[in-house]
Specification:
80 residues; alpha/beta; 3 strands; Rossmann fold; globular; 51% helix; 3-stranded parallel beta sheet
Length: 80
Amino acid sequence: MPLAIVTGANTGLGFETAVALASKGFEVLITSRSTLKGNAAVSRITDANPIAKVSMMELDLASMESINKFVSAYRANYGA
């Protein structure tokens, strides 16, 4: 199953992109600055499509610290 990373996917275009990719069979990793909002988006996607494989990681692209944490967590969960 191919993996798609969608940034800013808790609302708007990012959310709709994540929904579309999940419906096409992609494993979707959504990112959001807010863990609460990101997890809510995951729930909305999986409620509508129970077989979708969707996860969330916190990421603020305006913060190098956040980017570095994301990269470390991504590598730990998905490999290099």
